[in-house]
């Protein structure tokens, strides 16, 4: 059995964090994937309580004020964060946990849980990241340009992470993430 450890997977928008985590979870069902809370509305195909916990701005404020968020950030017009309790419960049960969050959230987790493993997922190239973001079709041109601006900043933070994994191929990236976590 693997050791219960918190792993943070961060990287720029559209790098494929969710897809890599899905493959990891399929191969290693013992891994708990933290469900984040957000103030944005669900996108088509997203399932409340599974994809995200969708909460009001007021409820999000309460969670932050009560110290019930492990980390949180504003991204565009919305806030995202990791509820603390489910992460702590899974770790106490001896289960490895993965958080799929942004660089600022990873920094907050590093401060809160110094022995967390921070893994940064990078695209094979900047042009591929741009193509993936455009291919999602979930943002306006203005939102996409803002995400690319943020992505440039995030790519500069790679040195703050314990491991770097390149997502040229989802299956290979998931294998490398599992190795980082001591699962393979």
Uncertain runs with pLDDT below 50, 5 residues or more? Answer: none
Straight-line distance between termini = 11 Å
Report the average pLDDT across residues. 91
Question: What's the β-strand tally?
Answer: 9
User: What is the alpha-carbon Rg in Å?
Assistant: 16 Å
In the sheet with the most strands, the strands line up as: 2-7-1-8-9
Q: Strand share of the residues?
A: 15-25%
**What's the number of helices?**
7
Describe the model.
Pfam families: Guanylate_kin (PF00625). The structure is a single chain. This protein is of the alpha/beta class and 184 residues long. The protein has seven helices and nine strands. The chain has helices at residues 17-27, 57-65, 84-92, 103-112, 126-136, 141-155, 170-180, and strands at residues 6-10, 32-33, 37-38, 53-54, 69-75, 78-83, 97-101, 117-122, 163-166. The chain has a five-stranded parallel β-sheet, sandwiched between helices. Strands 4-3-6-5 form a four-stranded mixed β-sheet.
């Amino acid at each position: 059995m693997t050791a219960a450890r918190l792993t943070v997977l961060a990287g720029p928008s559209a790098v494929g964090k969710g897809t890599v985590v899905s493959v990891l979870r399929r191969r290693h069902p013992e891994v708990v994937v933290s469900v984040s809370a957000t103030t944005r509305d669900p996108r088509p195909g997203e399932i409340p309580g599974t994809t995200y916990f969708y909460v009001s701005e007021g409820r999000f404020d309460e969670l932050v004020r009560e110290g019930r968020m492990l980390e949180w950030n504003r991204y565009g017009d919305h806030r995202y964060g990791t509820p603390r309790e489910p992460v702590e419960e899974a770790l106490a049960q001896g289960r490895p946990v993965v958080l799929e969050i942004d660089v600022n959230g990873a920094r907050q987790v590093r401060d809160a849980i110094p022995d967390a493993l921070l893994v940064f997922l990078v695209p094979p190239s900047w042009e591929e990241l741009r193509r993936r973001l455009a291919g999602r079709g979930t943002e306006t041109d203005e939102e996409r340009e803002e995400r690319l601006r943020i992505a440039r900043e995030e790519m500069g933070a790679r040195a703050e992470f314990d491991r770097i994994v390149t997502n040229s191929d989802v299956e290979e990236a998931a294998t490398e993430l599992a190795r980082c976590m001591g699962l393979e």
